[in-house]
From TrEMBL:
GO molecular function, one term: ligase activity
Identification of the protein by name: 2'-5' RNA ligase family protein
InterPro entries associated with the record: Cyclic_Pdiesterase (IPR009097)
SUPFAM superfamilies per the UniProt record, alphabetical: LigT-like (SSF55144)
Top-level taxon in the UniProt lineage: Bacteria
Keywords, sorted A to Z: Ligase
């Protein structure tokens, strides 16, 4: 997820060791986007719920319990990717319904207002699944692999290990 019309994408943001993010993994998109995505950083194809979230040093069992309860109040949902979008220098898949992702983000920020999406840099939430950075990608090749359908059933808590690589540390199920 990034924010529209700003010319900056989260992939260009720098993350520090110990920063965390909340994402919805979309493994169904991997066959289509794998060759363009930066797989070596440990983040699967996903739609971001919130980045950065709390520093890992502030996350304990109580935080896990609150996240578990928060996400359990939201139902799992089917998501479709039918079209390709573009921010400056970013090609992405557009998730439908977008509102389901926005609702997840807003719920987390309502509980932890000190964690505005992307450090408060952008005004509008635009959920997306990043395919590639740069302008050289043929969007028609990606569009040819659409539509994709997936089930958003869980939110993963990811931690930045060393400023570049990410690992999943917890998963929180959405209500079934």
């Amino acid at each position: 997820m990034t924010f529209a019309n700003q010319g900056v994408h989260v992939a260009s943001m720098r993350f520090e060791e110990g920063e965390t993010a909340l994402i919805v993994g979309v493994p169904e998109a991997e066959p289509l986007v794998r060759r363009w995505r930066q797989r070596e950083i440990g983040v699967p194809a996903h739609v971001t719920v919130l980045a950065p979230f709390l520093h890992v040093s502030r996350i304990d069992e109580g935080t896990h319990g609150e996240l578990r309860a928060l996400f359990a109040r939201h139902s799992a949902f089917e998501v479709s990717f039918r079209r390709v979008g573009r921010f400056p220098e970013v090609v992405y898949l557009v998730p439908e319904p977008e509102a389901a992702f926005v609702n997840l983000t807003q719920a987390v920020v309502a509980r932890w207002p000190e964690t505005p999406p992307y450090r408060g840099t952008f005004a509008e939430i635009v959920p997306h699944l990043t395919v590639a950075l740069g302008s050289g990608l043929d969007e028609a090749k990606i569009a040819g692999g659409l539509p994709l359908t997936a089930t958003a059933a869980a939110v993963s808590l990811m931690v930045c290990d060393d400023g570049e690589h990410w690992s999943e540390v917890a998963e929180f199920r959405l209500a079934s």
